[in-house]
Design a protein that fits this description.
Mean pLDDT: 97
Order of helices and strands: HHEHEEEEEHHEEEHEHHEH
Number of domains: 1
CATH class: Alpha Beta
Low-confidence stretches: none
Bound molecules: pyridoxal-5'-phosphate
Strand content: 5-15%
Radius of gyration: 21 Å
CATH architecture: 3-Layer(aba) Sandwich
Number of strands: 11
Distance between the termini: 39 Å
Oligomer: single chain
CATH superfamily: Type I PLP-dependent aspartate aminotransferase-like (Major domain)
Largest sheet: 4 strands, mixed
Shape: globular
């Protein structure tokens, strides 16, 4: 919801594109189908730390003259074709909430190389006060600035974020290597050569049918082996969550979802993004952390293999 809420607060309507089953990131083909003359920006989410396939997205954005805001909340220092995520689109947005690769307790960062967008973004952090030009309150801006204390924490965290990402990557690659031979049962987060994953968490798509069980059974078995995990990530697609599907955006208003000047946007309903819905049914998410030891990773690998072997031999 962290991606969606700011869009609604600007009076814009988030339109959802489907994901690819391989990467859990935007499917460029579906994205192109969803763009209309009302589209103002594309927000690719680099989910779990896996960069979105940015080339086709930048191509369509340039062709249509719309902005690209990369959601890098889960993807610190992830790379796509040698470029850091957040530096490919017009802007990059990072979360400093507690679970992320670096944190200031809560808060976030926006980066851009575009001066005009930078000036505009600053207004959101300072109640619309344009300090550079000495003009007070030039628009309705929120107060999204962090405190100096948080800034100081953030600067200290910046020094270690490279280590955090590299260590998470090394540990995840260890698990990838251990489980690679189970590829007809497990879809592992192994990125293509041109991509560097940052492993905010470790997602596995389980082909539980082949084991004669449900993904929930698999998740419970994994928990019974002492491996914390979650099945289904956010539980259902965001467009089926109450504020969106029931249009409960504000207490006495459904704006902007009932905007009379924008009636033909299509609505939210089950089946809107079929691949996403399939992913959510099957995905097992294992928490990931730079402080895991090799033994911790090996425990996870052994537990997964044990469950797969058990159910394969009991079919
Ligand atoms: C993909 C994604 N986008 C956006 C956010 C929002 O970040 P914040 O919680 O800092 O508002 C989060 C995390 O909470 C996230 O995981």
């Amino acid at each position: 919801m962290g991606t969606i809420i700011p869009i609604l607060f600007q009076g814009a309507i988030p339109i959802f594109s489907d994901l690819t089953e391989d990467t859990y990131t935007l499917d460029p083909t579906d994205l192109k189908r969803k763009i209309t003359e009302k589209t103002r920006a594309i927000v690719p989410v680099h989910l779990f730390g896996m960069p979105t396939d940015m080339d086709p997205i930048m191509e369509v954005a340039e062709e249509k003259g719309i902005f690209v805001v990369e959601d890098c909340a889960q993807a610190y220092l992830a790379e796509y074709k040698g470029k850091l995520v957040g530096t490919i689109g017009d802007m990059g947005a990072f979360s400093l909430q507690q679970s992320k690769h670096m944190s200031t307790g809560d808060g976030g960062m926006t980066i851009t190389n575009n001066e005009e967008l930078a000036d505009y973004a600053r207004l959101f952090a300072d109640k619309g006060w344009d300090r550079a030009k000495g003009r007070k309150y030039v628009m309705l801006g929120m107060n999204y600035r962090m405190t100096e204390l948080q800034g100081a924490v953030g600067l200290a965290q910046l020094k270690k974020v490279k280590w955090v990402v590299e260590r998470r990557r090394e540990l995840a690659e260890r698990l990838n290597n251990q489980l690679e031979d189970l590829s007809d049962i497990l879809h592992l987060p192994i990125p293509p050569k041109h991509i560097k994953h940052s492993y905010w968490q470790y997602p596995v798509l389980v082909n539980a049918e082949k084991l004669g069980i449900t993904p929930l059974d698999f998740s419970k078995a994994l928990a019974a082996e002492g491996i914390p995990n979650n099945v289904g990530y956010v539980g259902e697609p965001l467009y089926l969550k109450t504020p969106l599907v029931d249009k409960k955006t504000f207490r006495h208003s459904s704006f902007p979802l009932d905007n009379p000047y924008n009636k033909d946007w299509g609505g939210y309903f089950k089946g809107l993004c079929p691949t996403t819905e399939k992913i959510i049914e099957k995905i097992i998410v294992i928490p990931w952390n730079e402080n895991y030891t090799y033994d911790d990773v090996d425990d996870i690998g052994e537990a997964i293999r044990k469950i797969v072997n058990y159910y394969l031999s009991h079919r």
